[in-house]
Write a structure and sequence with these properties.
heterodimer, A: 70 residues, alpha+beta, Ubiquitin-like (UB roll), two-stranded antiparallel ribbon, elongated, B: 780 residues, alpha/beta, Fumarate Reductase Iron-sulfur Protein, Chain B, domain 2, FAD/NAD(P)-binding domain, five-stranded parallel β-sheet, five-stranded mixed β-sheet, binds iron/sulfur cluster, binds zinc ion
């Protein structure tokens, strides 16, 4: 899965638990046995990750369908 | 049925059978394709199609006895298409293209042909094209044989001469004025040549020493045209009585003889797979119902033949014979742009793929399994059965994609959990002569009608009316989950046995079908038959229903239950309604888009199915299945449920009301159970989940997107419950909103929310199935 190149440099979201801003990092995203490292905003302390609506509805949905038919 | 048997069903579909014209034509001219090209003004392509099958096209286009026209389907509404005249027109109006045919290397094998008429010359031409060196022996001083019996007007000599040039091009040697049997003997031909084709028109006196039949004619094998001499083959008019000469049969014989001789010289089987040669009957079915009659197009110049314009008109009379009966009535079949023969093949291949993309998954999962195709198919092919079987195999192989059916399956599991499932004898009785099974969808759509109906049944029927709330298991059955279905149905069976095997009264057509199929030892009856017998409750009737006819939408799962169709109509008549019958109703009814879980696998398709259905009449529709009603109404069609007329529409709504959304459907079931527990059975209601107390505020706009995304309020409540108890959530530096996610099972739900006065305002929610690996984030 292609990473989210268009991600803005800074995210509006903070980790409410750790009080830290999110930073872009590699997160493993998997489905039906396939795993892809994806650049996503996440909390560097607790790992809490942010998946934007556009990603869930767009690329992720597409890849899900692809993997389901594989 | 296993995968192999499924694959074999491909052969049932006769869509690829030849049209009647091409089948009856001894050389199989594709008149359908030719007419299509002419109708589009493309005479050049038409000529190519025609010439491909006919060695002497100019001659045949003038003298063919056209057996195609005798069987043309156009005759059901007007005259047969004038195929022969169209053949001539495409030669007249085609651009002259140079022959680009090339010859194979010479074989150094000699073949003799006796007789220079159509049959002999066809054999000579075909054999020369295959590389044999061919000599034709003609007793007269010119080629053509009986062609000169036609008038000069019908068949000018130049046309004959032009067509026969083809023989020069392939290098056939012509020996004129040589009479075999006199100037040269058949024996010496047999010595000098590898094989001989005899096509003398009439049998020479003495028969050249070949074996004869009882009537004195040569003994000729109809398949190979072999004679009693293995080197000698014979065909053409000599095989026919004088009155039965047929130029096109002569050509077909010449071709058949050439094939035999080629095989004979190659020393391969003369008889293997020759069924396709010569005139045939076709299995292709073509409906001419409703076809407006149209007579033959007249020619302004009868001698000259059709003008371009006339030919186009005549070609347009060809109805382009094909079957597609099923595709005409099924939007699903239509939407994948092919027909069952191809579909079965694609599905079979899809099941056989080990590695690679399974393109046909969507094809398999989109069918509503309604069986209408089988009703209209001349060969009884049921694509619904094919798709259902394919789904079962996919589930068994572990290859069923999870997303199309996950939501309805979870809905079924909800209905069979303690939240909704309930089985009790009638309050105050222990014996149950009857068991009312309202079904999960009616309970979801109109819980009040379930209560009223149950009360009415208890009052009307003697001997105890038990009640069973749950889902019949249709989503598992439809999605190919055989095991899940049997597990769930086993519960139904054991409870039914415990109740003393009562007669089951079913309010839902799908439940009816499931019970009838899987519990054949039970006596089942539809609610409509019961209500037809008891008569309507007091106060039932027209109410707010406009004084116009109602168009009955029969449920597809009742297709073969005439008695249910009858009962529904009896009730309507008794209530004073005039009934309108839709063109597709009764055993030919259409599915509403819910069947087979079509709506979940292919919502766009389901919407166009619904759209087509609701355009079939302007009248209000009357459905007797809760899903049918809600789906038809979802597209804006005024649709009544039969129970609306008997017990009133839910919450004073009318035919326009939209069915409840997914959350409400579950809520309605849970509340129905609790209400019955408390009111009827005097039991404690089932408590709600901890998160159930989380109050949500959701705008109408967001509601719509939640429905589309199949996100329930309980999903949202669980996300908030997790976020608030664990503290694991994000906060926007801009809006101050929280964003949290939670994955109760296969799907991860995201909710953007804020808090206000002890409630949660939901700003957005979305979901995905891909799984995140989130380090040490606490997962519950
Ligand atoms: S209508 Fe056309 S396709 Fe059908 S039989 Fe006649 S010529 Fe052939
Ligand atoms: S109705 Fe459909 S499945 Fe049946 S033969 Fe015709 S095209 Fe094939
Ligand atoms: S079962 Fe129904 S939806 Fe499926 S192909 Fe046949 S007619 Fe179409
Ligand atoms: Zn954190």
């Amino acid at each position: 899965m292609r990473e989210n190149n268009a991600a803005p440099a800074e995210s509006e979201w903070l980790c409410a638990k750790c009080g830290l801003p999110l930073e872009v990092g590699k997160v493993d995203v998997g489905y039906l046995g396939s795993v892809f490292p994806v650049d996503l905003y996440r909390c560097t302390k607790c790992g809490q990750t942010f998946v934007p609506e556009e990603l869930a509805e767009g690329k992720m949905a597409e890849v899900e369908k692809l993997l389901e038919d594989k | 049925m296993d995968q192999e048997e499924l694959g074999k069903l491909e052969a049932r579909c006769i869509q690829e059978q030849p049209p009647a014209c091409a089948a009856a034509c001894p050389v199989h001219v594709d008149a359908r394709a030719m007419a299509a090209a002419i109708a589009g003004g493309d005479f050049t392509s038409a000529a190519k199609i025609y010439k491909k099958s006919v060695p002497f096209p100019g001659i045949i286009s003038r003298v063919c006895d056209h057996p195609c026209q005798a069987v043309c389907r156009r005759r059901d509404a007007g005259d047969a298409v004038s195929v022969r005249a169209l053949e001539k027109s495409c030669l007249d109006w085609a651009e002259q293209v140079r022959d680009t045919g090339f010859l194979p290397p010479a074989k150094n094998k000699r073949v003799a042909v006796v007789g220079g008429g159509l049959s002999g010359l066809t054999a000579a031409f075909e054999l020369a094209k295959k590389g044999f060196s061919v000599e034709v022996f003609e007793k007269e001083g010119r080629l053509g044989g009986s062609l000169f019996r036609f008038s000069r007007e019908q068949l000018p000599e130049e046309v004959i001469a032009a067509d026969l040039q083809a023989l020069d091009k392939v290098g056939v040697t012509i020996r004129l004025s040589v009479k075999v049997g006199e100037a040269i003997s058949l024996e010496s031909l047999c010595e000098d040549f590898e094989a001989v084709y005899l096509a003398p028109g009439e049998q020479p006196e003495g028969g050249l020493g070949l074996g004869l039949d009882g009537a004195g004619g040569w003994l000729i094998d109809p398949v190979t045209l072999g004679t009693t001499n293995p080197k000698v083959f014979a065909g053409g008019s000599v095989r026919r009585s004088t009155g039965n000469r047929s130029p096109i049969e002569s050509i077909a014989d010449g071709r058949r003889g050439a094939i035999s001789i080629d095989r004979f010289i190659q020393k391969v089987s003369l008889t293997a797979s020759r069924g396709g040669e010569g005139a045939q009957e076709t299995r292709l079915f073509t409906s001419t119902e409703g076809l407006a009659p149209m007579g033959e197009t007249a020619m302004a110049d009868a001698a000259g033949g059709y003008s371009r314009e006339e030919a186009v008109l005549e070609a347009k009379r060809c109805i382009q014979c094909q079957c597609l009966e099923c595709v005409k009535v099924c939007e699903y079949l239509n939407s994948f742009k092919s027909y069952p023969k191809k579909y079965v093949r694609q599905i079979y291949n899809n099941l056989s793929i080990v590695m690679g993309h399974r393109h046909a998954n969507k094809l398999v999962n989109s069918c509503s399994l309604c069986g209408l195709c089988r009703e209209v198919c001349p060969e009884d092919l049921n694509m619904g059965l094919v798709c259902k079987k394919a789904r079962e195999i996919m589930v068994e192989q572990g290859r069923m994609p999870p997303s199309p059916h996950d939501f309805p399956i979870r809905d079924m599991l909800f209905s069979n959990s303690e939240k909704f499932a309930l089985t009790r004898p009638q309050p105050g009785t222990s014996a149950s002569r009857y068991l009312f099974f309202p079904g999960c969808q009616l309970s979801a759509s109109a819980p009040d009608q379930v209560r009223k109906t149950y009360a009415f049944l208890c009052e009307q029927l003697r001997g105890g009316v038990g009640l069973m709330l749950r889902c019949c298991g249709a989503p598992a059955e439809w999605s190919g989950r055989v095991e899940l279905f049997s597990e769930s149905f086993a519960d139904i069976v054991s409870q039914w046995q415990e109740l003393g095997r009562p007669q089951v009264i079913l309010a839902c057509s799908t439940c009816y079908e499931i019970f009838k199929t899987h519990l054949p030892e039970a006596s089942v009856i539809s609610l409509w038959e019961v209500l037809d017998r008891t008569g309507p409750p007091d106060g039932a009737g027209r109410g707010s229903v406009p004084d116009r006819a109602l168009a009955v939408h029969d449920a597809c799962s009742t297709r073969h239950e005439k008695h249910i169709h009858q009962a529904v109509r009896n009730i309507l008549r008794r209530l004073g309604f005039e009934i309108e019958e839709l063109a597709l109703s009764g055993d030919k009814t259409e599915c509403c888009g819910y069947g087979g879980l079509m709506f979940f696998a292919n919502p766009e398709l389901a919407r166009s199915v619904i759209g087509n259905r609701i355009r079939q009449s302007d009248s209000d529709y009357l459905a007797y299945c809760a899903m049918c009603r809600d789906y038809l109404a979802s597209a804006g069609k005024r649709t009544w449920h039969l129970l609306d007329l008997l017990f009133g529409a839910p919450q004073g709504g009318d035919a326009q009301r939209k069915g409840p959304g997914y959350t409400m459907r579950r809520e309605n079931r849970a509340r129905l159970k609790n209400a019955l527990l408390e009111e009827l059975f005097g039991e404690k209601p089932i408590g709600m989940e901890k998160y159930g107390g989380i109050g949500l505020r959701i705008s109408d706009e967001l509601r719509e997107s939640l429905e589309r995304r199949q996100i329930l309020d309980s999903d949202i409540q669980q996300v908030i419950e997790f976020a608030e108890s664990s503290g694991s959530k994000l906060r926007s530096s801009r809006s101050g909103h929280f964003l949290a996610h939670w994955k109760p099972a296969a799907v991860t739900y995201w909710v953007e929310y804020s808090e206000a006065e002890g409630e949660f305002i939901v700003h957005n929610a979305y979901c995905h199935r891909m799984e995140l690996t989130e380090g040490n984030r606490r997962l519950g």
